[in-house]
Every structure is written in structure tokens, then in C-alpha cells.
Amino acid sequence: MTKNVGTIDRIVRSTAAVVLLFLILTGAVEGTLAVILGVVAAALLVTSAVSFCPAYFALKLSTLAGVKRKD
């Protein structure tokens, strides 16, 4: 698994996940939308933690400074 998520991208993903989790935990969002946003928040946290995004991989993108995909 080649890293393809840069530092700023990781910060944005983590911040977005925290905001989504805050909305869920405070009850601002409920029901099906809360479940969907919870899954999105979890995905953002995981991709941020491992510095790898499957969508970036499929689209041959990278937000790492100075890294270019060759495949």
C-alpha cells in the first residue's frame, strides 16, 4: 500500500471526521443520515490514519508533495 494522502489532506480529513462525529453525538443529526455520516467519518479517519485513499489510488492521484504515480 503506497501512501497517497499528504499532510494537509490528512488534517482536512481528520477535521471533517471530528465535525461529523460531533454532529452525531450532539444529536444534531439522527436516523439514517447519522449512520451514513458515521460511516463517512470512520472512512475519513481510517484513510487519514494510514495515509492511503483507495479512491485516489483508483484515480491515480496523490496529495503527497513531490510524488507522482507511474502505474
Q: What's this, in brief?
A:
The protein has 71 residues and is mainly alpha-helical. The protein has helices at 7-25, 31-50, 54-58. It is 62% helix and 0% strand.
Account of the protein in words:
62% of the residues lie in helices and 0% in strands. It is elongated and about 45 Å long. The chain has a domain at 7-53. The chain has 71 residues and is mainly α.
Class by alpha and beta content = mainly alpha
What is the radius of gyration computed over CA atoms, rounded to a whole number of angstroms?
14 Å
Reported for the largest beta sheet, the result is:
none
Oligomer: single chain
Q: What percent strand? A: under 5%
Q: How would you sum up the global shape?
A: elongated
Describe the structure using short key phrases:
71 residues; mainly alpha; 0% strand
What is the secondary structure topology, with strand pairs?
Blueprint lengths: L6 H19 L5 H20 L3 H5 L13
